[in-house]
Every structure is written in C-alpha cells, then in structure tokens.
Write a structure and sequence with these properties.
The chain is of the alpha/beta class. The chain has a single domain, classed as Vaccinia Virus protein VP39 (Rossmann fold), CATH 3.40.50.150. It is 38% helix and 17% strand. The chain is built from nine helices and seven strands, in the order ααααβαβαβαβαβαββ. The chain has helices at residues 3-21, 25-36, 39-52, 73-86, 100-112, 126-129, 169-172, 191-202, 221-229; strands at 90-94, 116-121, 162-166, 180-185, 205-213, 233-238, 245-252. The chain has a seven-stranded mixed beta sheet, with helices on both faces. The radius of gyration is 18 Å and the shape is globular. The two termini are 30 Å apart. It binds S-adenosylmethionine (SAM). S-adenosylmethionine binds next to helix 5 and strand 2.
Length: 269
C-alpha cells in the first residue's frame, strides 16, 4: 500500500474511533493534522534515525528521511489521537523496543500539557535480555542492538514526562500505585501473555480508562478478555506492515455498551 492510501485508511479509522467515543470525527482529524504538521517532531525523529543508523538499519531505520508520520503506521497515529482526545493523567505502555509508540504517546502528552508515561520493557542489555523468554514471532524487534538503549528513537525534548522501567511487565504492573488512565499493550502477544498482562492491569485502571493493544490478531487473548469482562471492543486495521489487516484492538471502560453485548467466539490459543 502506498503512503497516500495509508493516510486515507488512517482517516477512515479515526471515523470509527469517533463513533466509538461519540465525538465528532472532525476533532480527531484536527489532532491528526496537528501531528502531521508537527515538523519539530518529525525532524527530531529523523535526527534520531540518523544517529542510530551505524548501529541499527532495519525497516524505518534504513531510510534517509521520513517525510511524514504516516510511515509509523496506524498504531502510532491512533495512540497520538486517542491521548490528545482522552488526556489521561497516567499512561502505561508495555513493549518499547525502539520507542515508536513511546515517542507518539509522549508527543501527545506534551501537547496536552498534562500527564506522564510509564513504559515497561525487558532489560535491553545484551547479556540480560537473552535470559528472558521472548516471543519467537517478533524477531529482531526484541533485541536492542549494541550501542543503543531501549527507546532509541524517542526525541530528547519529550523525555521529561517519561519513566522507563526495565523488567518483566508482569512484575512491574502489580507495583503501579496511581490509577492508569490509558494502557497500551505492545509486548509479548501470545494468548496467555496478553491475558495475564490485561488481568493484572485491570485492577489498576481508572474508571474511565482505555486499553489499546497491538497485534491482537496473533491470538484470541484480547477478544477473550473483552468477552469475559463484558467490555465492548473496537478493532482497527493497520497498514504498517504492507497490507491492510485487522491488527489493533481497544476497549473503553466507560463505553455505554459494556455489559450488554453478546459477543461469542471460540477460544483457541
Ligand atoms: C514489538 S516490540 C515493541 C515495539 C514498540 N512499541 C514500538 O512502537 O517501537 C515488543 C517489545 O516487547 C518487549 N517484551 C517482550 N516480552 C516482554 C515482557 N515480558 N515484559 C515487558 N516487555 C516485553 C520486547 O523486549 C520488545 O522490545
């Protein structure tokens, strides 16, 4: 898919999000335009990419110049727009790697002028990281290259609202103290793992919280969580990996349809 078509798909996706939260789509599109026009952000990302190229040159990092945020896919665009809309005081994300999601969440927090982000990932040091079991499908996006640190694309000017915790998310989440207004899952996507993360974070969520998850099509874990908790889900496509596939899942604790829906489905791992 070309980048212009991606842009159109991202806009269509925002219309679904607007419907889900009963807000005007024009408001969400305004946040998308603000992000799209944010040359300070895109220039800072380009500088980071350039600095990292001697150590890492996969995917986006093989490019000379990123001319639009659309190269980062719908996951990151949606995260930005959602955090601009919802203005949560505390965001928590699992799965940082180079920090694509982190950078977009932090940029939204900075525009909101309120809030902070706690990011959780396994230790990125080469020796330590090999001691943890990782998801085989993720491949090179699991191992921090020598010479770089977790979140290596995150622009420095956004780091004031950021806390990075390097440990297994199942250890860190139970220790969270303040209510989590927004939770983003992008760590280990296997059925059992996503369920254990979501079940742990459940007790930490504020009443109005939103859960957002990447790669929900890898298993039935996210759907199973929503069905068991009677939470009304929204699924979105993402074009970030070449073709348009259902890939993102989200659910909002305050959705009026929660508790009412009749979602049925078989649970296969
Ligand atoms: C797909 S990458 C995250 C990509 C990132 N969100 C981005 O936009 O650049 C998945 C990450 O999950 C992390 N991860 C895997 N198992 C984990 C666990 N048990 N606890 C915390 N993080 C984990 C990996 O170390 C890896 O960095």
């Amino acid at each position: 898919m070309d980048i212009q078509t991606s842009h159109i798909c991202n806009l269509l996706s925002l219309e679904l999000i607007a419907e889900y939260y009963s807000v005007e789509a024009s408001l969400l599109k305004q946040y998308y335009t603000e992000l799209y026009d944010d040359t300070v952000f895109i220039n800072a990302l380009n500088r980071k990419i350039e600095d990292c190229q001697p150590f890492y040159s996969e995917g986006l990092f093989s490019r000379k110049d990123i001319d639009t945020v659309d190269w980062f896919g719908n996951q990151r665009i949606s995260l930005y727009v959602l955090i601009r809309l919802l203005k949560p005081e505390l965001c928590v994300e699992t799965g940082v790697f180079y920090g694509g999601t982190t950078a977009f969440i932090l940029n939204a927090i900075s525009k909101n002028k309120t809030g902070r982000l706690i990011s959780i990932d396994l230790p990125g040091n080469n020796e330590e990281q090999m001691n943890y079991a990782r998801h085989s499908n993720v491949g090179c996006s699991e191992i921090i290259p020598d010479g770089l640190r977790t979140g290596f694309i995150v622009p420095d000017y956004l780091k004031d609202s950021w806390e990075l915790k390097l440990d297994d998310s199942r250890e860190v989440i139970p220790q969270l103290v303040e209510p989590v207004g927004f939770f983003s899952h992008d760590s280990e996507h296997s059925h059992d793992f996503i369920l254990s993360e979501l079940n742990l974070v459940k007790a930490k969520l504020s009443q109005n919280a939103t859960i957002f998850a990447d790669d929900v099509n890898w298993s039935n874990g996210f759907l199973e969580f929503c069905v068991k908790e009677k939470l009304y889900p929204l699924f979105l496509t993402d074009n970030g990996k070449g073709s348009l596939k259902m890939r993102l899942g989200m659910t909002w604790m305050n959705h009026p349809n929660n508790g009412k829906q009749e979602v049925t489905g078989s649970s296969t791992k």
